[in-house]
Amino acid sequence: MRENEHQPGPPPALPPPGGPPPVDPEQVRQFQQFQQFQELMRQHGGIPPAPAPRPLWKRVLTSRTVRRLALLAIVLFGLYFAYDYYFGDDSENLPASVTGGGTNKTNVLHETTPKRTVRQVYSHIAQNDRAPNEYEFVCGQFENGAERQFAEDFGAPDCKAAVAKLHAQIDKSVPGWRNAYAEPFPGAELGEVPVGTVAVVSSCQVKFGPQLGEFTLRRIENDQWVITGHRPETC
Fold first, then answer.
1. Cβ atoms 210, 230 nearer than 8 A
2. E-strand spans in the chain?
3. What would the pLDDT profile of 153-175 be if each residue is shown by its tens digit?
4. Which residues, 6+ apart, have CB-to-CB distance to 164 below 8 Å?
5. Following DSSP, what letter does each residue of 188-208 receive, concatenated?
6. Around 209, how many Cα atoms within 13 Å sit in the side-chain half-sphere?
7. Is the pTM of this model over 0.90?
8. Is 217:189 a contact under the CB 8 Å cutoff?
9. Is 124 exposed, middle or buried (0-12, 13-18, 19+ CB in 10 A)?
């Protein structure tokens, strides 16, 4: 053998392994989901069942739009009730000259508390410019000629003229003057029913004039109250 020939040596040593390859978290997550899917398949015998749809009525009731509409309806009803209570016309209790017939014994033609009856006088004086027969709602609250005394106390020839005169004296430059004059008493007092058959209602607590003086009322059939007397008063 020639001396200059290269003799083959042992193969180079491989580097020792550096340990197990790193675990990919995404692969672990996908594997866990696959296991969960397999478990679900075993429990339900194949394809997992789809969730049952909610009934239509339940979807409607739980809708945000429906809840908002219901809340709006409640608010509007409350506002209507409050307005009707404090500013309502009470047109269901009309005098006989307007209802076209009936008697106190068979029909409710007047209010059922003294202050509600007097409130009718104030309210329809405030509305006297709205209808040519509005004065009848005022004069119909009196009986036995008491409306003539009411007219005389304000220097008018009759009840109709007194209503027109008093309406003209209301300060209409004040915003909301009509409602202010139509509601002379606090709402909480309108339902007060005195003991006995006679009551007196003063106008001294009325803040928005003209004040209408002192009214005497009596209880008649069906717990109605009519005005039987009137006189001026100094407050």
1. no
2. 198-201, 214-220, 224-231
3. 999 999 999 999 999 999 999 99
4. 128, 135
5. GGTT---SSSEEEE--TT--S
6. 7
7. no
8. no
9. buried
